[in-house]
Amino acid sequence: MIARIIGTTALATAAIALASGTALAQKKYDTGATDTEIKVGNLMPYSGPGSAYGVIGQVEAAYFKMINDKGGINGRKVNFISYDDAYSPPKAVEQTRKLVESDEVLLMFDPLGTANNTAIQKYLNSKKVPQLFVAAGATKFNDPKNFPWTTGWQPSYQSEARAYAKYILKEKPNAKVAVFYQNDDLGKDYLKGLKDKLGAQIVAEESYETSEPTIDSHIVKLKATGADTLVDISSPKFAAQAIKKIAEVDWKPLHILSNVSASVGSVIKPAGFENAQGIISATYLKDPADPQWDNDPGMKEFQGFLSKYYPEGNKRDILLITGYALAETLAQTLKQCADDLTRENVMKQAANLKDWRTEALLPGIYVNTSPTDFAPISQLRLMRFSGEKWELFGDVINGDTE
Amino acid sequence: MSAAEEVVAEGHEAVEAVPKRAMTLSTTTSLVVLAVLLIVPLFAKNFIIFQLTMLLIYGLAVLALNILTGGSGQFSLGQSAFYGIGAYVTAVMMEQFNVPYFLCLPVAGVLCFGAGFLFGQPALRLSGVYLALATFALATAMPQLLKLNFLEKWTGGVQGLIVTKPDAPFGLPMSQDMWLYYFTLVVVLAIYIFSVNLLRSRSGRAFMAIRDNEIAASAMGVNVALYKTLAFGVSAAITGVAGGLSAIAVQFVAPDSFTITLAIQLFLGMVVGGVGWLPGSIVGAAFIIFVPNIAEGISKGLSGAVFGVLLFLVIYLVPHGARQVAILSQGRIAKLK
Amino acid sequence: MELFTNQVLAGIATGAIYACMALAVVMIYQAIDHLNFAQGEMAMFSTFISWQLMQWGVSYWAAFVLTLAFSFVAGIAIERILFKPLAKAPVLTNVAGFIALFAIINSSAGLIWDFTIKQYPTPFGSSPFLGSQLISTHQAGMIGVTVLLLLGLYFFFQYTRIGLAMRAAASVPESARLVGINTSWMIALGWGMATAIGSIAGMLIAPVVFLEPNMMGGVLIYGFAAAVLGGLTSPFGAVVGGFLVGIFENLAGTYIPGVGNELKLPIALALIISVLVVKPAGLFGRHIVKRV
Predict the structure, then answer these.
(1) Which ipTM did the prediction report?
(2) Model pTM?
């Protein structure tokens, strides 16, 4: 019944908008927005198995605090309400409903994880509440036709996988490819992207569970298949183990590492620089642990922000700059909304980011959306690990079109 | 090793004896609680109704564990597995085969009864920590079983399955949430009454005899094997129904929803509610739903630690859980009279 | 055949991790007669302490010894402060206490040292051991330390007064008190020793799995499984159990077609349960006779 009432209100608002013609000049609000405040809802795994990601929520909170100190967005303070979903879908549904129905937020921003976002996607779309910039790379979050209230953010796992496949086909056309993946949505999505392009060239698929203490046995098994190329889709801890183990068993495949684990600070360095030489990956963000950005103005600004607003954070953690870039994207969207803070306009503006970029992104990477494209970042650059840093090479790849 | 070590002295049981009368509430209290459960949703927001629905569902799952542990003295850390089976059976039947939701629940219950009964067989020979490990193994295995490739056609694999929430029937003027709440309430009440009667019946007495002293029970002619597996089966069936209800309420099932964390939560719910005291189940459920929310309200970065501290406080103050509070307050009231 | 040998070797290497943890599990079981779910987290925290000491410039062995001492004292302190008040509470309430302790330690470590993985040094180096790339010198060293610990524990429980007293206090507290054993302090001592052994396990495991707050989650499951398989009353059984679980898991993952890889943990656990059905006290555990 509530849904019906909201439905009618939306219709009524639309009718008023039509009747008054130029509605832009007026201030218009949906639930969660006023002259002084915009309420933004967020879910993060502050406890439970995904607690490593909790820092994303904390850095986002810090970012909005900075924005508010500077006077807010178009004069409105951002009230960032972030709840713990413990990385559990039922909890995510409970907390989302609390945010929407009890805290009455204008929009949901950056909930984390494919399962949790899937769990709340249908609810938010039926309530017509924007689910903006989800922290999950599944392709289903870029589906404006069926889910007009949901947008992705990062390049989709499948498009990244296709970029690797293309690289393999070009550089090593006769490669015998082994795929090592995490047995969850992350791994399966990549696997699909790889299979689409590489097909029969994949000689081995080996999955692991996050509950395993070490993945040594899988590496031993993969080496025995005689593959000469390894696509490694593992989360940071396991990626570091894999890099180390591959060096220990003296296996020398062309090692392609998914972007999830391309962090210098939290993967490559612990695994040992000497073991990581020549690894190929792709990225769209500047890595704060990569010395090549030390003098970059964008990076300096980010570090300055951290020192002032989130001094307890690990300055080298790539998750922090991810959260920072995400928060900047939301701030830009809200800025574009001007005084029309209806949920409809929020979606309209989220689908109207044109060649916008933040200095957290790699040079040459732009955020672009349109009413038919809800994937803000679809560009990536390939890179090769050399010495103590990543070396970018090749042109900017557009993951969606290739 | 010394001979002394080979003998475990009496009085070392995992679960203490609870007189069976003490397992329930008095009629007056029951009626008051029922009235509250009936009336509150009429004045609450949909979100609160949803939370209350989850409270009833978790309460049901804790109750199921209570029958197993409090009733028959068997310990389980594997309840999340049966909860998951129930949820998936319901979700798959509803979404892939278009079976109405109210028919899915009994099927989930029956299947879980079978699963529990079968699992009870090897569990028969195990007790204490060994049984804990066996059930723990079941809980760790379940998400991996749900992800299996050849089941993906039905289960949606790692991506999970979205479930459609049913509308109120007969054109009743209620929101989906409110309808589901009352539907859940009816199911939970029916099962609660069944459980109370079960524990008061011949079978219930057999459960408790086994709990208090297995060897003595068997000497008195109780078929220990049958009743132990039966307790597992009944507990699994009820947990399965709770899982099925949760699939409908949450509108989504995924392997990650049914991990060992859930089993641990249900266990905590039982301890906080009072082992062997059925009405405590709802108190325990409230603890596992609301206390994490309170904890993160106190500190985001340390929410786990705050939860731990709150849990410690509860078990220090009332080591026997809500049951202890109930007994204490009963004593007070009796004195006043 | 080469793959078989390799998987067995890799299994032994991984098994050493489980064996190490299983010893700590057996230790606490001997002292308090049940399992401590927070044991893995306590080991993780100790390992972080040693890591922090090394960050401050303390040498490896000095940090090792300091951490051992710290863990021993911390274990006793945890027992005295947190669990002694629960001594009269039901066993299940104590288990809830372990879960609370788990949450507190995990969350605090995350806040203090954050969740990014850290490299942890090894005193044994990580070059190939005896020409085999599958077992590194570190893993060989870990096996060596595990065996030393095992011998130490065996002598402690079998031949020292205090070891015997501790066993008596755990299994028959009433009778132990009658012969003048201070059972309460025996339990505290058991906590201290278990925590110290856990810290050794943590410091040996960390170079392989990397140091982070969740590093012991998976290890503890296997440590329990190994201890239970070998018999919770037998340190020797726990170590054998650790190696068996490691090897079996790898072979199941490699040779069972179809679901072997995806289900290697469930298969390993199912096997352990089958063993327990035949030998309910584990492979090397003493059968417990119940008196009515």
Answers:
(1) 0.87
(2) 0.88
